[in-house]
Amino acid sequence: MSGAVNLAEKFALFSESWTPKIIGVVDDYHVKIARVEGEFVWHAHEDADELFLVVDGRLRLKFRDREDVLLGPGELYVVPKGIEHLPVGEPEAQILMLEKQGTVNTGTAGGERTVAEPEWI
Amino acid sequence: MSGAVNLAEKFALFSESWTPKIIGVVDDYHVKIARVEGEFVWHAHEDADELFLVVDGRLRLKFRDREDVLLGPGELYVVPKGIEHLPVGEPEAQILMLEKQGTVNTGTAGGERTVAEPEWI
User: Fold this and answer.
1) What is the CATH number of the domain that holds B88?
2) A117 lies in a domain?
3) d(Cα B64, Cα A94) in Å, to the nearest integer?
4) A29: which chain B residues are within 8 Å (Cβ-Cβ)?
5) What is the pLDDT of residues B84-108, one digit of tens each?
6) Within 10 Å of residue A68's Cβ, how many Cβ atoms?
7) Closest-CA distance of chain A to residue B110, Å
8) Which of A48, A116, B27, B70 could anchor a disulfide with A1, C-beta 3.0 to 4.6 Å?
9) How many domains does chain B have?
């Protein structure tokens, strides 16, 4: 129906991993989706909490300071600002994220997987 | 696994409709869930966008100024701030919402279904 955002339809529009796409805006926040596969990079977002919700597959969040969090479909976790984390698709997952606009996927770590300005889909 | 928020487990903790529960915080925003059944009340949130994601069931969003939006599982819609809307469970739904902390469920409409301070579950 007009206006509804269907997650399965959005995921069907791309196949690459670790390239977040924007699917919505809530005030100053972006709703993003991504496919993830294997390890990403250790990073932190100094000034933004980050919500991860698994739509399909399995996502492990590794931390320096706490136990791993393993998420399956219908499970979510909010990584607090400043906390270093390593997202890992086990072996892969479709995830929804919510974070302040301008939050870069690799945080302060940078590197070749950085997507400074995700595209809208 | 420790720390993960499982939506199905959270919905199993309550049965009443139209009483949002907080399940997470992202900066100044609350992640809430609610069961909905039939019509709520027409209302608007003057200064807050509101994200609706259907986890189970079917939710209709009626508007004064645009076509209805009908959401099933895995579908979302963001109601822009200031836009009057009427959420309707058809016949019922489990929904996840994201909105600025302090956003009241009935907006500026008030009334007996107002939950000024949702509980955490």
Assistant:
1) 2.60.120.10
2) no
3) 35
4) 26, 29, 98
5) 999 999 999 999 999 999 999 999 8
6) 14
7) 22
8) B70
9) 1
> In this structure, what token pair is assigned to residue A83?
């906390």
Q: For the segment B37-86, what is each residue's pLDDT rounded down to a tens digit?
A: 999 999 999 999 999 999 999 999 999 999 999 999 999 999 999 999 99
Cβ atoms of B85 and B62 within 8 Å: the answer is yes
**Which chain B residues are Cβ-neighbours of A25 within 8 angstroms?**
49, 78
Alpha helices (H) along chain B: 7-11
Instruction: Give the global pTM.
Output: 0.95
Stretch B10-36: mean pLDDT, rounded?
97
A101 domain-assigned: yes
B21's CB contacts (< 8 A; 6+ apart) are B10, B13, B14, B32, B33, B34, B118, B119, B120, B121
